[in-house]
Amino acid sequence: MTILVRQAELDMGVQEKGMAPEELKKVENGGFVVPGSNAFGNTFRDYNADTARKEIVKDLYRQSHIGHTYDFVKKMREKYGKMDRVEMSIWECCELLNDVVDDSDPDLDEPQIEHLLQTAEAIRKDYPNEDWLHLTALIHDLGKVLLLPSFGELPQWAVVGDTFPLGCAFDDSNVHPEFFKENPDYDNPAYNTKYGVYSEGCGLDNVLMSWGHDDYMYLVAKENKTTLPNAGLFIIRYHSFYALHKAGAYTHLMNEEDRENLKWLKVFNQYDLYSKSKVRIDVEKVKPYYESLIKKYFPEKLKW
Ligand SMILES: [Fe+2]
Ligand SMILES: [Fe+2]
C-alpha cells in the first residue's frame, strides 16, 4: 500500500535514529494514509488559509501570547493542580468533551470524541502492540474540559493552541510570534534570554509551559498515579509544543530522556494531526477495548 506522506513530514516524524526498523516500516508501508486536506479542504495547519476560522484562530493566538506569563502559568498550575473539582472516570470525561469545539484548530470542526477515537484507532492499526499509545491517544485532549463551567470555564486562549515555554526567550518558530512583543515577560531580563531561568539540558519536566489542556491532563494523569510509561506522559504534556516537535526549537533545554520520548511524540503527532478527517468511528464497537486499557493504566475514578 502506498502511503502519501510528504517528504518533509516523513523527515519530521519517522526518520529518527534509534527508531526500531519495524516501527519505521509500519509508517512507510502501513495502512495509515495521510489525507491531503482537512475538514475545510485546506492543507493542515495552514494559518493563512482563507477560511472562516482564520480570524478566530489569529485572535486566539494574540490573546494567548499576551496572556501567558511566567506568573500566570505558575498560578494556574497551583490552582488546577489541587484536583479538587470533580471525580469521574476517563470514559466519563471522554463523553463530557462531546460539546467542546476547539477554536484554535484550523482543521477540525467535529466533536472532540470523534477526534480522540480517530487518532487512537489510526495508531492502533499501525502499532497494534503499543496499547499504552492507544490509550495515550484517547486521553491526550481530555484536558479541554477546562473550557466547561464545572472546570472554571477558562477562555479558549488558556486551554487550546500551540504551547511554548515561559521563563526564557520566545522562539520565532512559534506560530504568530509577533504577538509576543506585547507579553509583559518579553521585556523582563530575567525571562528574555535564551536560557532565562533554565540551564542547558535541564529537562523539559523542569520547564514551565504555557497553560492549557496539555499540561492539565499531564497533571491529572500524574496526580492520579497512572501507570502509563513516561513516553505517554511526555506525549500528553508536549503534543501542542509544535516549536519543539515540528521546528526543533528549544532543544537546548532537553535531557537524554526527553530526546528518547520525542521520537514517540513525533510518531503520535502524525496521527493527531492527520486523523482529523471525515472518518467515522463506531463508538460503541470500540468502547470495550478502551475500557480495558483504562482499567490497566488508571484507577476507576480520577480526581480532576
Ligand atoms: Fe491537543
Ligand atoms: Fe489532539
TrEMBL record:
Residues reported in the UniProt entry to bind substrate: 45, 102-104, 144, 161-162, 239-240
Ribonucleoprotein as UniProt keyword: no
Signal peptide: none
Key words, A-Z: Ascorbate biosynthesis, Cytoplasm, Iron, Metal-binding, Oxidoreductase
Reactions accelerated catalytically: myo-inositol + O2 = D-glucuronate + H2O + H(+)
Gene Ontology MF: a single term: inositol oxygenase activity
Protein name (database record): Inositol oxygenase
Cofactor binding remark: Binds 2 iron ions per subunit.
SUPFAM superfamilies, per the entry: HD-domain/PDEase-like
Residues annotated to bind Fe cation: 115, 140-141, 213, 239, 272
Matching InterPro entries: Inositol_oxygenase (IPR007828)
Cofactor: Fe cation
Family classification: Belongs to the myo-inositol oxygenase family.
A Gene Ontology BP annotation from the UniProt entry: L-ascorbic acid biosynthetic process
GO cellular component terms, A-Z: cytoplasm
Subcellular location: Cytoplasm
Biological or metabolic pathway of the protein: Polyol metabolism; myo-inositol degradation into D-glucuronate; D-glucuronate from myo-inositol: step 1/1
Its EC number(s): 1.13.99.1
Native source species: Cuscuta campestris
